Amino acid sequence: MVKIYGKTTIWNKRLLNIVEGDNLYTYIGFGVIDRGTNVLQIRPTTMCVFNCIFCSVDAGPLSRNRFSEFIVEIDSLINTFNLIVRFKNCSVEALIDTIGEGLTYPHIFDLIMRLRSNPLVKSIAIETHGLIQSKTIVKKLEESGLDRINLSIDTLNKEKAKYLMGVSWFNVEKVIEIAEYVVKETNIDLHVTPLWIPGVNDEDVIKVVEWAYKIGAGKKWPPATIQKYVVHRFGRKVPGVREISWSDFWKFIRIFEEKFGLRIKWSMEEWGMFRTLKYPCPYTKGDRLFVKILSPGVFRGEYLGFDADRNILVTVIGRSVRIGFNYLVEVIEDKDCLLIVKPIKEIHI
């Protein structure tokens, strides 16, 4: 059974929900995502304290498209993770990445320790946009068993960083200080991943990558990569910026490596990644099932439906439905078992 409860309101009357239950591997917003490799994405929360001007998932207090936020109960996360790991039966990396900021999760240290307790977990990493603001937090992350921090900062310039992050309190100089502490004083590795916004931070990404190499990031894993600015349906669009094609992006990467002599493109093998069997998905595109609507989803116009037969959640889109009511739905998307359905008709039981 999956329960969504404890509804309170935060930023602009947005709903904050607690999620509890098994089999949390079918919703993109939270839970565990298996994309058919030895890297499992762990998503314990949707919360974020930043308002990045380029955010592809419109996270943060100033979001216009989000209707709800979610925090997952830790036992539910661990049970789902262990279920999938048992099926894969191979060494895995637990990557804590979110559609928000992973370090906002209130049980982050306990989560890392409990992930570490699984003997098949080879490494644990977390993605952050710069919420590592103190050495105390870093030491607790290290003591909990964290192996790597994937740090996404997009400039080393103090004022531009505030603009890009969308908050006046962001202190990139402090982030730089703590990142260098991570490399020099802890066993945690650092991977730096600036986002390139053409025409906005062209020179900045060069300086960020050069800084990553200079301080010794990449003790075990690659030191740096550059992310592509991608426009998504619910994401934010940077004014005056046109999204470039993937072919142009990879051309930029090739020229960057040739010009500066710094690698920023890496193979799966260099990341320690390999293909594995995916955990079986109970439904495929075209299947029909009955669900009960539990709550709104993260974004406006989406709902979370519960399938009691398979004990899973699905994302319901397409037309308005009523909370607490039952519907016949059809699966319209099943990639990586992130199930999206459309309602066919309301069912009275």
Automatic annotation (TrEMBL):
Presence of the UniProt keyword Coiled coil in the record: no
Gene3D superfamilies the record matches: Aldolase class I (3.20.20.70)
CDD domains the UniProt entry points to: Radical_SAM
Start and end residues of each Radical SAM core domain: 34-263
A GO molecular-function descriptor: catalytic activity
Keywords: Iron, Iron-sulfur, Metal-binding, S-adenosyl-L-methionine
PANTHER family from the UniProt entry: MOLYBDENUM COFACTOR BIOSYNTHESIS PROTEIN A-RELATED, RADICAL SAM DOMAIN PROTEIN
Protein name: Radical SAM protein
